């Protein structure tokens, strides 16, 4: 459809702008007594005929429809008197309705653009936040993995320590056995020294020293065994704590991994919305 527009003010400009977006409509000319009007500038920019007198275009550039956008009664009367046959005229009232529709559409698009621009900015901040959180989660995951590995190594070392304690207990048991044998030897030596009378007095002193040393050794062994037992009990508690910490670290690593995957999905959705917002802004 070929269109001519009379009036290049705010209303005529809005009508021209929306008609230019329609593939089935071809605006051939627009006129206004003010050649600096916004609609005239827009028409020139789009290669549309312009002028200050619509009468010059009525027959030289025929159209299917003329939109009278001035709302001036004198202009309308002049148009009706000179309009070619089979050309439809949309008068001021109908043009005003059309301009209201166009204006409402323009306002809606403007609001959508503003909202889209704000949404785009918010999404930019959101994406940056997602990246920062993702980096933090990655660091936590790596730290948790290291902690878990260290816990496992500590558990292995605690097992080795327990084995060493067990071997120490065996050695102490052997020393205690020797101590008992030495004590018995000391008692037997004392008996023999008593039988020997004056001749066995020196031997009796040695026998007494052996028995005293055996008592002292046995007491020391018992004390050492108690200390080792206390350490072993403490190691058991430490080992349980390490196992618990290692288990917590594993669970935390898994939770961090799930959170990281969720953030990636959220980032993907955010990018899609941002692209949509950019399309709205470019309308």
TrEMBL record:
InterPro entries: Chemotax_Me-accpt_rcpt, MCPsignal_dom, NAD(P)-bd_dom_sf. GO terms for cellular component: membrane. Keywords: Transducer. It comes from the Bacteria. One of its GO terms (biological process) is chemotaxis. Belongs to the methyl-accepting chemotaxis (MCP) protein family. This is Methyl-accepting chemotaxis protein. It comes from Anaerobranca californiensis DSM 14826.
């Amino acid at each position: 459809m070929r269109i001519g527009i009379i009036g290049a003010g705010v209303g005529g400009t809005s009508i021209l702008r929306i008609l230019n977006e329609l593939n089935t409509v071809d605006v051939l000319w627009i006129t206004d007594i003010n050649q600096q009007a916004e609609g005239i500038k827009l028409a020139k920019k789009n290669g549309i005929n312009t002028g200050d007198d619509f009468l010059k275009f009525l027959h030289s550039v025929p159209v299917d429809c003329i939109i009278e956008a001035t709302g001036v009664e004198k202009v309308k009367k002049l148009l009706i008197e000179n309009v070619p046959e089979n050309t439809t005229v949309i008068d001021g009232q109908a043009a005003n309705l059309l301009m209201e529709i166009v204006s409402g559409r323009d306002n809606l698009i403007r609001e959508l653009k503003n909202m889209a621009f704000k949404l785009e900015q918010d999404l930019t901040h959101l994406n940056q936040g997602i990246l920062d959180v993702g980096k933090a989660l990655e660091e936590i995951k790596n730290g948790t993995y290291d902690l878990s590995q260290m816990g496992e190594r500590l558990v292995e070392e605690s097992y080795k320590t327990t084995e060493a304690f067990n071997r120490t207990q065996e050695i102490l048991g052997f020393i205690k056995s020797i101590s008992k044998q030495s004590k018995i030897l000391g008692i037997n030596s004392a008996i023999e020294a008593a039988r020997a009378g004056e001749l066995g007095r020196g031997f009796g002193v040695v026998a007494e020293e052996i028995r005293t040393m055996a008592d002292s050794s046995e007491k020391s062994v018992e004390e050492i065994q108690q200390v080792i037992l206390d350490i072993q009990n403490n190691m058991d508690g430490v080992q349980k704590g390490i196992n618990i910490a290692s288990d917590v670290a594993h669970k935390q690593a898994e939770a961090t991994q799930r959170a990281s995957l969720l953030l990636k999905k959220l980032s993907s959705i955010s990018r899609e919305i941002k692209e949509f917002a950019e399309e709205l802004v470019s309308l």
